[in-house]
C-alpha cells in the first residue's frame, strides 16, 4: 500500500486515520515532523501549509489528532464522546475561529482562519472545524470502524449493514472467515 493511498475522504477521517491497524498492532503514520510534512503535502489545498519543524507545531498536531481519533472512534461505536477531547477540539476553534467561504462550483466551500494567526493555529483550527462538521452533520451517523482483520479504519457507511471500508477489506474478511470454517471441518 502506498503510504497515503487512503487519503481523499473527509478531512477529519484522513486526519484520524493517520493511526492505522496492521494485524494486532497500530502503526503511527505521523511519527516525525517529516511524516507530518508529507501528510500536509498529500492534503495540499485542504489544509494550510505549516513548518512542521516549528517548535510546538508537531506535538500540537499529534495531540489534536489523538483527540480526534478518540472522538471519532467513540462516535463510530455509539459511545459517549470523551469530554476532555471535546473541550480541546472546541478550544482550538475558540482560539482561532474558522469560517466557511464559497469557493467554486467544484469545491463549494473553503475553510479559512478568521483573522490572522500563526500557521500551526490555522492548521489546528481547520482540522478541528472538519471534525465538528463531520460529527455535527448528517454524515456523523454514518461513521463506522472497518470490521476487517487488520484494518480498523474509520469510514462512512454507504448502507446500514456495511461492515468494511472497501472491497479489499470485505474480501479479506470473507477469506479469513472461510479459512476458519475449513480448518474446523474434520
TrEMBL record:
Pfam families, sorted: ABATE, zf-CGNR
| Domain of life according to the entry | Bacteria
Q: Where is the chain membrane-spanning? A: none
Which InterPro entries does this chain map to?
Answer: ABATE, ABATE_dom_sf, Znf_CGNR
Q: Where in this chain does the record put each Zinc finger CGNR domain?
A: 142-181
PANTHER family associated with the record: BLL6575 PROTEIN (PTHR35525)
* Protein name as it appears in the record: Zinc finger CGNR domain-containing protein
Species whose genome carries this gene: Jiangella anatolica
